[in-house]
Amino acid sequence: MKKLKVWGLATAIVLFSGAANLAHAALPNCPSGAVKVVVPNPPGAGGDILSRLLGEKVGAALGQNIVMENRAGATTTIGTANVARSTPDGCTILSLTASGVVASVFLDNLPYELTRDLQPIAGIGSVPMALAVPNDANINSIDDLAKIAKSPGGLTYASGGVGTLAHLSTVRLLNALHGVGNHIPFKGNPDATQALLGNHVQMFFLSVADGRALEESGKAKILAVTAKERLPMFPHTPTLIELGFDDFAPSLWYGYLAPAKTPADTIDQLYKAFASAVNDPQIQEKLKNMGFTIDLQDPVQLKAFMAEEAKRWGKVIRDNNIQSGS
Asked: Structure pTM?
């Protein structure tokens, strides 16, 4: 598994359609005339931006048009359920995030079982998170944050939904601070960001690309990042590990899944198409702008990684008795 680290600020979204056949064998023509990528998050979220960025090259490698469909809501489960019950022909695939794995661990009575009803295609990589606070709040350090968390009212924080990585990462942080928090979940990260900017919450974990944009605009302060080492885009901002929070480096990761029983040769074609897109120099340059660490995983590797993530965050959920309405 090869890793390539690239950093920067998101600046472009590529709208796309497939092109002519390349070296990889093309999928059969899809009934709708295109491969549909279902993003279980709102437009503008990380998975949406990434999928649009990769789409043109993926479509070219497959000899297919690519269309996007945002099916947000219920902590990614609405869009995931849609793909799980789709025809297993390679024509409908899911954009998966860490939140999708977490949802499969803590939500009851889901209309699908993630590892039974879907199968991995490719893992793409991840983006560290930035710990953001309102610019005009009197919060300038982790120590300031700790004092609020230990106060009678506790810390009010946002997330893009119950069970999202921002939610569970804040729970982990509050445990380490020996403090308490009031969780305000939203339908997605854009709404949570607006709550932060409106001073309705005191902190929010968001992607480093979004964090840098807010900091440069003077709308928020970034107290720390969740990377394992300092980032070029935040040279003066410490990591949480630096600040004494051992092994605290959760990241927003992204991958793609297909319905179970999709033929193995189709999965292989899809994987090769994503690998071709990720290895394209133009795509890599654009991924720099998203603060992205490319970590291409094949189906076997992504399956193992998903199992590790389910175990890791499942422990956080159990230890903190997190319920779907938390």
From this structure: 0.83
